[in-house]
Amino acid sequence: MTIARWDLWNSPCPPTPKFVNTTLDFSNFDYHTPTDQNLTLFYGCPSGVSGLDKANYFPCGLDNIYFVSESFTGIDELFEKCHRNIRVPVLGTALKNESFGLQKVLNQGFDVDYHNFWAITCLGCEASAGICGFNSSSHPFVCLCRDGDRQPLFCSSMHACSFLFSLLD
After folding, report:
1. Could you give the maximum distance between any two Cα atoms of the chain, in Å?
2. Which residues pair with residue 87 across a beta bridge?
3. Taking a C-beta distance cutoff of 8 angstroms, is the pair 110, 31 a contact?
4. Confidence band, pLDDT 50/70/90 cuts, at residue 118
5. Do the Cβ atoms of 108 and 37 come closer than 8 Å?
6. Percent composition of the chain: helix, strand, coil (DSSP 3-state, to 5)
7. CB neighbours (10 Å) of residue 53?
8. How confident is the model at residue 166 (pLDDT cuts 50, 70, 90)?
9. Which residues form the Wall-associated receptor kinase C-terminal domain (predicted)?
10. First-to-final CA distance of the chain
11. Burial class (CB in 10 A: 0-12, 13-18, 19+), 67
């Protein structure tokens, strides 16, 4: 799944900047997939920072602002000299595309792996003709079967196997 930051969607110069790094709830998402790269936006930098190309500069009011990927060798100088910074994951392919400007790179977003164990487990339970439930005293998830039995994942192995094979296709 590809997602993008809403606060940077229209402009890397938000009207009421909150200067926060991109963070996700790792119980539902993983990022830093092989397709992603971190981009750091530096705000309030002095003019003429060494080692930066004009392509890394973008205007934002009266601020001097630069963006660099995490592989930029002079990144430590920017951390020292610039007032604020934020890290934003972006698609590596968008970052390497020289025809893309900063805004298009930000709007392309970044890839995440969405994983919700309980949602997938519940689908498997329902595919085996069960009803999803929770048992707070022993196991957080139970599959309530038609015969009154309670199973940790599926009601019958035959339905469970066909469900698992359909997930793998």
Report:
1. 75
2. 40
3. yes
4. confident
5. no
6. 30, 25, 45
7. 8
8. very low
9. 74-148
10. 18
11. buried
Pick from 140, 143, 121: nearest CA to 132: 143
128 pLDDT exceeds 50? yes
CB 94 within 8 A of CB 47: no
| Contact indicator for 93, 85 with CB cutoff of 8 Å | no
Place of tokens 């001097």: 64
pLDDT one-digit tens code per residue, 43-58:
888 877 777 777 788 8
Is 0.70 surpassed by the pTM of this model?
A: no
Rounded to an integer, what distance in angstroms lies between the CA atom of residue 16 and that of residue 23?
A: 19
CA 156 to each of CA 16, 22, 117, 139: distance values in angstroms, whole numbers, following the listed order: 55, 42, 19, 19
Mean pLDDT (whole number) for 78-92:
89
Domain ranges of the chain: 2-114, 117-168
